Amino acid sequence: MQKPEFKLNGRIWIETPEGKVLGMGRVELLERIKESGSIRQAALQMKMSYKQAWDMVNHMNDHFGEVLVISHRGGKGGGNAIVTEYGLQVIVQYHILQSKFKAFLEDNLGSVVL
To answer: Do the Cβ atoms of 34 and 68 come closer than 8 Å?
Structure first.
């Protein structure tokens, strides 16, 4: 019997003692808010409810010590949302961490003996 070909895989997220605050999905949400200027549009693009997206944004804002997204309520001209400079830095740092994690997985595949 031929041995299967294995690869290492995984996901990385950041958490506080209260739980997860950042992962791939939340970074995607931040990126879509940045692109669309809207939490509602970002939620629609990700096929999630506005409430779920809003709750995620509030959770990140509450647990990072600095605001990642500033939102303005709708009105005559409609509302908008802006990813702050700190939020943009968080996105970049997450992608750097994700790249390092992928490299770690690739570098350590050969050391897995099954």
So the answer is: no
